């Protein structure tokens, strides 16, 4: 009976901003913003000779040059805006997950409270800290108290129950931490592939201009070269940003996971130390 009560104990999930579950919404709005940016900012007539988008770009005008990258540019800008939006979304979500105070200090204080056998202090630290680690530690402390009040189980079984409660609470929190990370990982590759596609399209246009009438149309030739180079640079920039964002947040998630493992081990060891004589 006691086993059922322990496994069915309700777990408390992190409160506050936990991330956007439907990332397609973010991507859709980033696409709209990218199209608007492409036509109204990059394609502003003031960026081109005689105010005509079909003419040459004014000397030194970078916005007009990017516009000449062609239809692939809005796609790459969509990916870039998505990286920026998801980076902000992950930052807000992980800030909630880490809690109010510094995580290393919280872990140190929890381990100190456990070593002193002051579980009331440990629970207060969790209540003050909040976030993912605090919630998991709180669930483990609750299981600890329940095992102390439970009879009919061996010490090894009780330790296993405490570890199980810790793992269940961790599994409840992990989806929030990992949310939308696969999208950032996908954009790392997708940005490069889209840039390659745009480069190929631009080169096709350049060779088509060369093939027309021998020498070719200089305007069409320059547009093709611009399209190729702009798409290459934009795609590399997008992939570069996605790599940095993905690795940065993966590292933060790893730190949080290590903190969970460290505290979970400390709680189990504390129970084993404090109940050496238990049959």
Structure, described:
This protein is rod-shaped. The relative contact order is 0.15. By secondary structure, the protein is an all-alpha fold. It has ten helices and no strands. The protein starts with a helix and ends in a 5-residue tail after the last helix. Helices cover 77% and strands 0% of the residues.
Identify the notable features of this structure and list them briefly.
single chain, 279 residues, mainly alpha, 77% helix, rod-shaped, disordered N terminus
- Shape descriptor reads rod-shaped
Strand content: under 5%
Low-confidence region ranges: 1-11
Q: Pairing-aware structural class of the strands and helices?
A: mainly alpha
End-to-end gap? 19 Å
Biggest β-sheet strands, sense, barrel: none
Mean pLDDT: 85
Task: Write a brief structural summary.
The chain is mainly alpha-helical. It is 77% helix and 0% strand. Residues 1-11 have low confidence and may be disordered.
List the helices and strands and how they pair.
Layout: H1 2-7, H2 23-42, H3 62-67, H4 72-98, H5 103-116, H6 119-129, H7 131-148, H8 155-178, H9 181-211, H10 218-274
């Amino acid at each position: 009976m006691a086993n059922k009560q322990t496994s069915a104990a309700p777990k408390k999930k992190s409160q506050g901003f936990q991330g956007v579950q439907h990332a397609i919404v973010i991507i859709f709005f980033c696409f709209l913003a990218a199209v608007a940016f492409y036509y109204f900012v990059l394609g502003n007539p003031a960026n081109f000779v005689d105010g005509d988008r079909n003419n040459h770009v004014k000397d030194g005008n970078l916005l007009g040059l990017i516009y000449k990258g062609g239809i692939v540019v809005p796609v790459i800008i969509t990916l870039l805006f998505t990286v920026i939006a998801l980076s902000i979304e992950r930052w807000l979500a992980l800030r909630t997950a880490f809690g109010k105070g510094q995580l290393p200090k919280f872990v140190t204080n929890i381990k100190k409270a456990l070593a002193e056998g002051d579980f009331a202090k440990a629970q207060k630290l969790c209540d003050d800290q909040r976030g993912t680690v605090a919630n998991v530690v709180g669930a483990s402390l609750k299981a600890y108290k329940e095992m102390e009040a439970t009879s009919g189980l061996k010490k090894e079984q009780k330790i296993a129950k405490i570890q199980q409660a810790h793992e269940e609470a961790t599994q409840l929190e992990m989806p929030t931490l990992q949310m939308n990370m696969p999208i950032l990982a996908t954009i790392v590759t997708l940005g490069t592939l889209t840039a390659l596609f745009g480069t190929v399209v631009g080169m096709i246009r350049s060779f088509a201009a060369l093939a027309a009438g021998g020498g070719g149309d200089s305007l069409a030739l320059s547009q093709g070269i611009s399209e190729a180079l702009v798409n290459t640079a934009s795609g590399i920039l997008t992939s570069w940003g996605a790599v940095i964002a993905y690795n940065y947040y993966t590292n933060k998630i790893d730190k949080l996971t290590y903190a969970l493992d460290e505290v979970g081990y400390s709680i189990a060891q504390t129970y084993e130390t404090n109940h050496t004589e238990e049959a």
